[in-house]
């Protein structure tokens, strides 16, 4: 006889009890108010491009999803960030894309 497997049904919704599957909060910053949701590595099933470092966030890596709190853009304004990139967004300047032979300073 095989051992019993106790598994909860996955519905795609946060649980009704405390500490739901999606913990989100509102953060205030110099660039405005943002709704921020932490995504666990087990829940990250797709690859995304981080706007902070322009590197790929592979599936299975924990990261942050953030969008403006004003709610104007909806799902089109959501961005997936590496956690350190999200924390450092105020300290970083815009990334300048240089051509292959441009001088580096």
From TrEMBL:
It comes from the Bacteria. Residues 1-31 are annotated as: Disordered. This is ATP/GTP-binding protein. It comes from Actinomadura fibrosa. Residues 1-10 have a biased composition (Basic residues).
């Amino acid at each position: 006889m095989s051992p019993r497997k106790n598994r909860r049904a996955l519905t795609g919704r946060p649980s009704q009890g405390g500490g739901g599957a999606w913990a989100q909060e509102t953060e205030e910053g110099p660039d405005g108010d943002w709704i921020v949701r932490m995504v666990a590595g087990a829940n990250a099933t797709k690859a995304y491009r981080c706007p902070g470092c322009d590197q790929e966030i592979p599936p299975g890596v924990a990261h942050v999803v953030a969008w403006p709190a004003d709610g104007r853009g909806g799902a089109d304004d959501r961005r997936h960030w590496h956690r350190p990139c999200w924390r450092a967004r105020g300290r970083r300047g815009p990334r300048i894309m240089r051509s292959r032979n441009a001088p580096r300073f």
